[in-house]
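Example record used in the benchmark description.
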Amino acid sequence: GKSWGWDPESQFLASRGYAVLEPEFRGSTGFGAHHFQAGLKQWGLKMQDDIADGARWAIAKGIVDPKRICIAGPSYGGYATLMGLINDPELYKCGINWVGVTDLGLLFDNGWVFSSDATDELKAYTLPQMLGDPVKDAERFKATSPIQQAARITQPLLLAYGGVDERVPLNHGTQFRNAVMRTNQQVEWVQYPEEGHGWALEKNRIDFYTRVEKFLDRHIGSGAVR
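Model output (structure tokens):
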């Protein structure tokens, strides 16, 4: 869950004139057990609808131009970015996913590491309780795995991954990139070979946010065609 405080990513975007909405969708922590448990097995489903509802709220309030909304995030937020583009294509003009999960099945059988950065919630509920069973829930996994639905993503995408990420291994990025680029030519890919689950090195943070700024300007900012 979020807490009050300085968020450099939000401030960076706000300083460029973008309104930033960080919805606390069901499954978020810090709002009681009921709010967290309401997100169990809702990846790509009700958790995703909550984010779309937030965007529609911002439109209704007149805070944002409905024709210029981009969805973005890291890790689960990267997953939600891709599922948002799939589920609500009329809402989002572009997406930015860094170190995001792209295949629910891969979390179970390919390189998921319970390293020290795993959250207490993850350890307590474990993946099967949070996501479901890869065999019994195979159809739902297919419907809610971006890699299986990649052909439905037509919007511009910026993808960034770390070469030594233990939380979401690099193949989540490379396999999804290969899948989506078969039908979508508006994909920008960047890999930081020495980074893990996020950008620790200043040069890479500067490089990434320079890319983010240019990408947003091109697709929803002053550089976008009205």
